[in-house]
Structure prediction request, 480 residues.
Amino acid sequence: MELVNTDVAYKFIREKILSGVYSAGMPLASKNLSKEIGVSRTPVRDALRQLEADGLVIIKPRIGASVKSMDLKEFKDLCGLRQALETYAAGLAAHNRTESELEEIHGALEAMRVIVEKMLKTANDKELLGDLAREDVRFHLAIINVAKNDLIKKEIMRLSLINRVVSNPPKGKSTETLANRRTVLESHQEIFDAIASKNVAAAKNAMERHQQKNLEKVILMMGVKERSKFHSELGIAVKG
Amino acid sequence: MELVNTDVAYKFIREKILSGVYSAGMPLASKNLSKEIGVSRTPVRDALRQLEADGLVIIKPRIGASVKSMDLKEFKDLCGLRQALETYAAGLAAHNRTESELEEIHGALEAMRVIVEKMLKTANDKELLGDLAREDVRFHLAIINVAKNDLIKKEIMRLSLINRVVSNPPKGKSTETLANRRTVLESHQEIFDAIASKNVAAAKNAMERHQQKNLEKVILMMGVKERSKFHSELGIAVKG
DNA sequence: AGGTATTTTTGTGTATACATGATGGCCGAT
DNA sequence: ATCGGCCATCATGTATACACAAAAATACCT
Prediction:
């Protein structure tokens, strides 16, 4: 695969957005970017167009590009979309799964359990939190892979990126309780069991409930964040 | 809303693809396009990037753009994605619907019924077919609107475009029987009833079955088309 | 004659120049 | 003093020129 400057610019800007260096609402002037990246404006514009398609950037004619910001409605819609896709994927996974594929899902589930139990003992969450998040996505990713629908996978991956941006700003500070993590684990267990027993309807139900809980959790979290940052309209990820 | 050349190029190319003038696999040289449209290559490239995001075009570095072509697997995945979204939307619609919104869905349903009954009498399908298709999308669109999730709506609209391209080439010749149309009508009735009675689970089930039937129908249709066009690799919408 | 190497040509990717429309400050009028 | 219009500045949209890679055509060798 040939690598062109457009890709360089794309990865550069995307990384900055995902890491929160470019925060929501921030204008992305093609001139500045081209100087910063070291390429001309043309590939930068190309990259911005791709990022717009990803839903990370918004481009208004004659105004320019800026990092996408969301209101609460849009965020809820996003979660709904994701719920629809992951739920469907869980159903497919329950239908398609082979033994070895089940193995991988189970591996992610157990890895999460181990981490949560470690957390009960040590108060030091710092890196465990990262591990937990990693295993969480591994679990969901495993299911999506087993579903074997490449378009749905692609779409969910796209949504994940947007989610990452939205939940990013508050310095990664976790408002989750241990009880919450326990609940997540239980949800995952339910999902796994349904997939293991090839029960399509149960898998869908379990995943739908899981996603619903997640939505409610994040909404709550965002509500809190919102109040605390109400004065600075710019630089927040979600307003409304 | 300001209108720029990029939009002109986008609409131009998109229209040609949707109408089948640019058929699947056909290379889209930016130079030719720019001459044909009467703008420079820059906005054409922009437009092609957008069309790539829409899933209508594929761009390979150093090679160029071409109209996207699909294999059977990808098409099935597409239908799955659509099934997931429309099913979810039906559930939302059943939950959210107001009386007046229900009215609109019902209107589309009855309009379709009238057309199908007209078809029973007159053999002249020519324009009735167009009307039927129009009312069909109106029905689905009404449900999606009632679901009130803008992202899901946007995504379904995108998929509809791709579908249109895929099912387009065979001169609009309908392989559907009247019995088929009856079945579609019954499915719609079921979906409507579920939404009317605010039964979320039933609405989802009805829509899922409806989409499933549609997939099977189109797969069959495509299988036939495929065999008949096997020799000409280029210019077919779906290969495999 | 067939296949391969080489040249030619075409088209992409990129940089850059230019024009138009937007943004922000300044000045005058009320 | 504040509001509204005018002007300067700047960034965007667009066109175009250039370099290099890929494809096509031609010539060459076996």
Observations:
- The domain at 71-239 of chain A is CATH 1.20.120.530 (Four Helix Bundle (Hemerythrin (Met), subunit A)).
- Chain A has two domains: 5-68, 71-239.
- The radius of gyration of chain A is 20 Å.
- Residues 2, 29-31, 41, 45, 61-64 of chain A lie near DNA strand D (CB under 10 Å from a C1').
